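User: structure tokens for this one?
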Amino acid sequence: MFNWLKKLAGKATTDDGPRFEPQSYRGFDIYPEPRAEGGQYRLQGRIVQEQDGNRREYLLIRSDLLPTAEQAAELMVAKARRVIDENGERLFD
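Assistant:
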């Protein structure tokens, strides 16, 4: 796919691989950042919350390997939502 077409679809490709738009969920921002590994993509991303001018981040890395970056990003968002539901503010303790 052409780079300008990917940008229209919400993704831009760089030398590091595809970029995905953050998703907002219950006051948190989820940044899917799949990592290429051995021809597949590891589920990886960040959960970010800004509160009173303070930015807090939680790095979420799982053992899941998927065939495409899009699948890894989609699963990362689903798992991040579950982590947020289970932990809420305690995520950053």
